[in-house]
């Protein structure tokens, strides 16, 4: 029962990491305008994401425009796209595999593949969390390097957006869920009793050996005198045979 509860905890942590990863991938708040130096105009805010670039006006108008060309994008943005999409796909695969491997589901109940399936789901959650963590760390490093670049104008500097922080939280949730699933599956595998081979013949109980007494050994009849078998018509007197004296 404890192992089942631990598996459910790991699964829900990984599921929350999946939702956070998908939301952070779709949000355009990866980079937001930095108000430094002479750039003190707060009537307009610019935000950049993986898929679109948005402008927010103080009047409440929110306008977004999708990137029209994939090849025209910077290489770091293309790599961030690919890594986040791969992280989302891996998280979905991890959710499906771990759901099939948990003890509370009916799939392959009583089979030996239950624990390996749950462990595989945990490993997929770990991979998804690492992919998301690498992407948001890479973006954070780029934003910080550009922010402290003295040759870059103040109007072109950006700060870390909300989607990056959400990506960090999602990566931590996915990693935690994967670790919990792997730990619970490893404990369930070590506690399972060893299985005996079905084809091995079983010896009868020791009490069966004393029921029947062993049969006597066969002894061939001894040959008679002169190798002649006694005939039924031979003369006899008082129990003595004649050919014994002839």
TrEMBL record:
<dbReference type="Pfam" id="PF00822">
    <property type="entry name" value="PMP22_Claudin"/>
</dbReference>
<dbReference type="GO" id="GO:0005923">
    <property type="term" value="C:bicellular tight junction"/>
</dbReference>
<keyword id="KW-0965">Cell junction</keyword>
<feature type="transmembrane region" description="Helical">
    <location>
        <begin position="160"/>
        <end position="183"/>
    </location>
</feature>
<dbReference type="InterPro" id="IPR006187">
    <property type="entry name" value="Claudin"/>
</dbReference>
<keyword id="KW-0472">Membrane</keyword>
<dbReference type="GO" id="GO:0005886">
    <property type="term" value="C:plasma membrane"/>
</dbReference>
<feature type="transmembrane region" description="Helical">
    <location>
        <begin position="117"/>
        <end position="140"/>
    </location>
</feature>
<comment type="similarity">
    <text>Belongs to the claudin family.</text>
</comment>
<keyword id="KW-1133">Transmembrane helix</keyword>
<keyword id="KW-0812">Transmembrane</keyword>
<comment type="function">
    <text>Claudins function as major constituents of the tight junction complexes that regulate the permeability of epithelia.</text>
</comment>
<dbReference type="InterPro" id="IPR004031">
    <property type="entry name" value="PMP22/EMP/MP20/Claudin"/>
</dbReference>
<dbReference type="GO" id="GO:0005198">
    <property type="term" value="F:structural molecule activity"/>
</dbReference>
<keyword id="KW-0796">Tight junction</keyword>
<dbReference type="InterPro" id="IPR017974">
    <property type="entry name" value="Claudin_CS"/>
</dbReference>
<feature type="transmembrane region" description="Helical">
    <location>
        <begin position="79"/>
        <end position="97"/>
    </location>
</feature>
<keyword id="KW-1003">Cell membrane</keyword>
<protein>
    <recommendedName>
        <fullName>Claudin</fullName>
    </recommendedName>
</protein>
